[in-house]
TrEMBL record:
<feature type="binding site">
    <location>
        <position position="336"/>
    </location>
    <ligand>
        <name>substrate</name>
    </ligand>
</feature>
<comment type="pathway">
    <text>Amino-acid biosynthesis; D-alanine biosynthesis; D-alanine from L-alanine: step 1/1.</text>
</comment>
<feature type="binding site">
    <location>
        <position position="159"/>
    </location>
    <ligand>
        <name>substrate</name>
    </ligand>
</feature>
<feature type="active site" description="Proton acceptor; specific for D-alanine">
    <location>
        <position position="61"/>
    </location>
</feature>
<keyword id="KW-0663">Pyridoxal phosphate</keyword>
<dbReference type="Pfam" id="PF00842">
    <property type="entry name" value="Ala_racemase_C"/>
</dbReference>
<feature type="domain" description="Alanine racemase C-terminal">
    <location>
        <begin position="267"/>
        <end position="395"/>
    </location>
</feature>
<dbReference type="InterPro" id="IPR009006">
    <property type="entry name" value="Ala_racemase/Decarboxylase_C"/>
</dbReference>
<dbReference type="InterPro" id="IPR011079">
    <property type="entry name" value="Ala_racemase_C"/>
</dbReference>
<feature type="modified residue" description="N6-(pyridoxal phosphate)lysine">
    <location>
        <position position="61"/>
    </location>
</feature>
<dbReference type="Pfam" id="PF01168">
    <property type="entry name" value="Ala_racemase_N"/>
</dbReference>
<dbReference type="InterPro" id="IPR020622">
    <property type="entry name" value="Ala_racemase_pyridoxalP-BS"/>
</dbReference>
<comment type="function">
    <text>Catalyzes the interconversion of L-alanine and D-alanine. May also act on other amino acids.</text>
</comment>
<feature type="active site" description="Proton acceptor; specific for L-alanine">
    <location>
        <position position="288"/>
    </location>
</feature>
<dbReference type="InterPro" id="IPR000821">
    <property type="entry name" value="Ala_racemase"/>
</dbReference>
<comment type="similarity">
    <text>Belongs to the alanine racemase family.</text>
</comment>
<keyword id="KW-0413">Isomerase</keyword>
């Protein structure tokens, strides 16, 4: 096809060119993509709810742990999730603007000027101090609309929340407030990833002890929630009236020490394709800094994804990928947009062969947990690091969910 010399050039080809431009605007043809299996999310939601024996607040902060905020939230809503949780006001507003209707709690600390936005978008507010309670009351009164709040108690995380041993006056003030509806009371576990840690029992005891203030003042007990993924997996007694799993919902364990007490299915795969093939001669180095040198003549392919997509540079000469069902090592430094893989002197791979960075290929698999270990980090950071330069593709779940 003839390529016009300028964007305005009129020619027989311009319709084709327009069609191509249009197609690119709609769906990326980039061979690198994230595939999200919505049926795995459904399975994990039901499995975690059954294990906890409690309603689920699905945590979808940080772009649903890299899986795509709006699509995941709509899907969980369609599957009957009782509530959603996000970190920031902006994430909650994005969900409301996308038409998500289930209750949404914003878990993060609040800033005074934002409070009215929570109320007008029907977002539930985390109130973590008496001061914040007063801010919420003032904003609610000014709007003439009551705010729905969850009281945040600190039982050992020392992040946000009123210390559980000082919670009495805080709870009394919240219950007495005519502009706030106390829907929940919660705290956050610091060590639940590790089934052997004694910290969780201490935190549970502090939390339950603080909750007795509601009874003492004759107030109805709000929803008590404490368990993150680690809590659901390892500490059934922390599940209480609602659970807040994040990473387990996506089928990933929080920590190498975690136990697989629930049958979880990973929802995310990260795939690309071979973009270049060559032979590197013995003694020749690969990539920036020349940190890896071929010990023998070997075949090396290039894969078009890098740390600019959130694939960690720490995997330089440490990570593996799957090509044609075989595991092969990443060699040399990962670049912003590409990296190289040694497929060995006899390896075969062709341009456009599929490359799996996270996920399964034939009988082989690379899970997010092992990628995290190779990169010297935790699975959370791997998932949420995968950024918007990578197109997301959804499978399963039924078309009506999108
Ligand atoms: C992120 C978060 C969760 C979910 O944690 P996971 O370890 O991913 O299950 C639950 N509660 C709060 C307050 C959080 O910030």
């Amino acid at each position: 096809m003839a390529v016009p010399t300028s964007y305005s050039a009129a020619s027989a080809a311009s319709d084709d060119i327009d069609a191509l431009r249009h197609r690119h605007a709609e769906a990326s043809d980039r061979p690198t993509r994230i595939r999200v299996d919505l049926d795995a999310l459904t399975h994990n939601l039901h499995a975690l709810r059954a294990k906890a024996g409690a309603p689920v607040m699905g945590i979808v902060k940080a772009n649903a742990y890299g899986h795509g905020l709006v699509t995941v939230a709509r899907h969980l809503q369609a599957q009957g999730v009782e509530q959603l949780g996000v970190a920031f006001l902006e994430e909650g507003i994005a969900l409301r603007q996308a038409g998500v209707r289930v209750p949404i709690l914003v878990l993060g600390g609040i800033f005074g000027p934002q409070v009215a936005q929570f109320i007008v978008h029907d977002l539930e507010i985390t109130v973590s101090s008496l001061d914040k309670l007063r801010q919420v009351e003032a904003a609610a009164e000014a709007l003439g609309h009551r705010a729905t709040i969850h009281l945040k108690l600190d039982t050992g995380m020392e992040r946000i929340g009123v210390h559980s041993y000082n919670a009495g006056p805080f709870i009394e003030a919240a219950v007495a407030s005519s502009w706030c509806v106390v829907k929940g009371v919660y705290s956050h576990l610091a060590c639940a990833d590790d089934p052997a840690s004694p910290m969780t029992a201490v935190q549970l005891e502090r939390f339950l002890d603080a909750c007795t203030h509601f009874e003492r003042i004759g107030a109805p007990m709000p929803l008590r929630h404490l368990a993150n993924s680690g809590g659901v997996l390892h500490f059934p007694e922390t599940c209480l009236d609602m659970v807040r799993p994040g990473i387990a919902l996506y089928g990933v364990l929080p920590d190498p020490a975690s136990r697989r007490t629930v049958d979880l299915r990973p929802a995310l795969s990260l795939v690309s394709q071979v973009v270049y093939f060559k032979v590197v001669k013995a003694g020749h180095s690969v990539s920036y800094g020349a940190t890896w040198t071929a010990p023998r003549d070997t075949r090396v392919v290039t894969v078009p994804i890098g740390y600019g997509d959130g694939y960690p540079r720490a995997l330089s000469s440490r990570g593996d990928v799957l090509i044609r069902g075989q595991r092969h090592p990443i060699v040399g430094r990962i670049c912003m947009d590409q990296f190289m893989v040694d497929i060995g002197p006899q390896g075969t791979a062709y341009n456009e062969d599929d490359v799996v960075l996270i996920g399964r290929q034939g009988d082989a698999g690379i899970d997010c947990e092992s990628v995290a270990i190779a990169a010297g980090t935790i699975p959370y950071e791997i998932l949420v690091g995968l950024n918007d330069r990578i197109p997301r593709e959804y499978r399963g779940g039924g078309l009506s969910d999108r």
